[in-house]
Amino acid sequence: MADFVSSFWNGYVMVLVALSLAFCLLILVTNMGKGAKKGAKPELHGHVWDETLTEYNNPLPQWWMYLFWITVIFSIVYLVVYPGFGNVKGVSGWSSAGQYEAEMAKADEKYSPIFKKYAAMELNAVAADPEAKAMGQRLFLTYCAQCHGADMRGAKGFPNLTDSDWLYGGEAETIKATILGGRQGVMPSFGPALGGDGVEDVANYVRSLSGLAHDSLRAQRGKETFEQNCVACHGADATGMTAIGAPNLTDKVWLYGSSKETIMETINGGRNNKMPSFEAFLGNDKVHLLAAYVYGVSTPAK
Ligand code: HEC
Ligand code: HEC
Fold it and tell me: How many Cα atoms within 13 Å fall on the side-chain side of residue 46?
C-alpha cells in the first residue's frame, strides 16, 4: 500500500473491504431463521426457471451458515493482525518486505564470512579453489545465465565467456572491472555515410580478414573505406581495442555473426550493447567470486 502516492486509494480500498464485510454480515443476519420452520413442510417458492425448474424454501444448511460466519470472523481477525486494510499495518507488524529483509540478513550473516574470506584472496587463488568455484557457479547461474547462458557460451549479442576472445580483456582484474562497472559497447552507424554499396564493400573486406568467402573487387574498395573509417576503433590491423570493447575482426569469433547480411546490418545500423553494472546490486565480495569463476573457466590453470 505504501506504493500509492496519494491517500485516496488507501481510503478506497478500506471502504471496499468494509462494505464487502458489512454486506456478508447483512446477508448472514437477514437469512438467519429464514425458510421453512422446523418440522413444517417446505413449500415451493413461486418462481420457475427454464420452464420447469422450481425450488423449495428449505433453510440454508447450518454447517454452511457457520462456515460463512467463520470466514467473516477470520477475515476481520486477519485484517487486525496483518496488513491488508488500506495502509493499516496490522498489530503484528509483519510485512512481506520485512520478512524478506530478515531472511536476507540471516543469509548474509551466515555467508558473508565466506565471501569475505575469498574477497581477501587474490583472484587467481580464488579461481583455483574448488569451493569458491562451486559458489561462483551458483551465483553465475542466478545472476548471469539469462544473458550469457548456463554454459557461459553466450548468444547473438551476448559474448561467450568461455573462450580466450575478449571485447574488454580477459585478465582477472579486467573481468572484475567489467562486472563491477558494467560496459557499453557502441559501434556507430555507417549506413548514411557510406551508402549501400560502400557498406557492402567494407563488409566484404571484413569477411576477407578472417578468410571468409568474399568479392575481392569489393573487398579491395572496402579496405580503403576501412582505413578511413574503422581503424580508429578496430585498430590498423583490425584486431580490435579492448579499451572501448571494439571486437577483433580478424579472428573467427563473432558477437553478432559472420554472414555478410549480419555484418552489413552491424555496419549499416550500428550496435549499442550493454552489460549491466553489478556493483550496487551484488557488492564487491560476490563480484570478486564471480570474476574469479569466469576467469577460472575461461583460463584453465596452466
Ligand atoms: C542483461 C544481460 C546481461 C547480464 C544479466 C549479464 N551480462 Fe555480461 N554482458 C552482457 C552484454 C550484452 C555484454 C557485451 C557488452 C558489449 O558488447 O559491450 C556483456 C559482457 C560481459 C563481459 C565482457 C566480455 C568480454 O568479451 O570482454 C563479462 C566478463 C561479463 N559480461 C560477465 C557477466 C557476469 C559475470 C554476469 C553476472 C553477474 C553478467 N555478465 C550478466 C549482458 C549481460
Ligand atoms: C567508435 C568506434 C568504432 C568505429 C569507428 C567502428 N566500430 Fe565497429 N564496433 C565498435 C564496437 C564498440 C563494436 C562492438 C559493439 C557491441 O559491443 O555490440 C563494434 C562491432 C563491429 C562489428 C561486429 C563484430 C562481431 O563480432 O559481430 C563489425 C563487423 C564492425 N564493428 C565493423 C566495423 C566497420 C566495418 C567499421 C567502419 C566502417 C567500424 N566497425 C567502425 C566500435 C567501432
Answer: 0
- Give yes or no for residue 296 CB within 6 A of ligand 1: no
Block means of pLDDT (10 residues each) for the chain, 302 residues, are 74 93 90 70 83 84 89 94 88 90 91 91 94 95 96 96 95 97 97 96 97 96 97 96 96 95 97 97 95 93 60
The answer for 7, left when phi > 0, alpha when psi is -120 to 50, beta otherwise, is alpha
Protein residue whose Cα sits closest to atom 36 of ligand 2: 230
Distance 90 CA to ligand 2 centre (A): 58
Which amino acid, one-letter code, is at 94? W
For residues 75 and 185, give the distance between their C-alpha atoms in angstroms, rounded to a whole number. 54
Closest atom, ligand 1, to C-alpha of 146: 5
CA 158–ligand 1 middle distance (angstroms): 7
**Cβ of 271 below 6 Å from ligand 2:** yes
10: CB partners within 8 A, 6+ apart: 1, 4, 86, 87
Distance CA 194, CA 86 (A): 61
Taking CA atoms only, the protein residue closest to ligand 1 atom 20 is 275
- The CA distance from 293 to 172, in Å, is 9
Q: Exposed, middle or buried: residue 8 (CB in 10 Å: 0-12, 13-18, 19+)?
A: exposed
